[in-house]
Specification:
single chain, 147 residues, 8 helices, 50% helix
């Protein structure tokens, strides 16, 4: 069994192309041409995230643990995304790997695990500082940008 920490480390090292395939359908088939990346990223843990039993000539599927990891995070992010207006969506996609202005903090406050913790400067309240999305949220926003 692969641990959540191992899957998280493996996921972060994947290319956007592979992450997009997995976000689209965590339990679906991943094309054979992506297999070399999937099993070499994060070795030895990376090879444990994929199974060949039941996989066909068209590709391979994630282990139940890896598929669940992706699905849970994608679904949490989809719920958050569905409550955003179009302007906020555009702002977040455009700034997914940059610091987000503090006025958007309220839009992510209730979305568990979306932002990194920030350290406010002396005399500055945390709500007045910019912030960044955590890697899985950045990856989700990359996926949204590609759609």
């Amino acid at each position: 069994m692969t641990t959540p920490a191992a899957i998280s480390a493996w996921w972060t090292d994947l290319s956007p192309k592979v992450r997009n395939v997995l976000f689209q359908d965590p339990e679906g088939t991943v094309p054979v041409d992506l297999l070399p990346e999937l099993v070499t990223i994060g070795e030895p843990e990376g090879s444990e995230c994929w199974v060949t039993i039941g996989s066909g000539p068209d590709g391979f599927t994630a282990t139940p643990e890896a598929a669940q990891f992706v699905k849970e995070r994608r679904d949490t992010l989809e719920r958050w995304w569905s409550n955003l207006d179009e302007d906020k969506r555009k702002t977040f996609v455009a700034n997914r790997d940059k610091r987000i202005p503090p006025q958007y903090r309220e839009d992510v406050r209730d979305a568990y695990g979306l932002v990194t913790s920030t350290t406010a400067g002396a005399g500055t309240a945390p709500d007045q500082t910019s912030f960044r999305f955590v890697p899985i949220a950045q990856h989700f926003l990359e996926w949204k940008a590609s759609q």
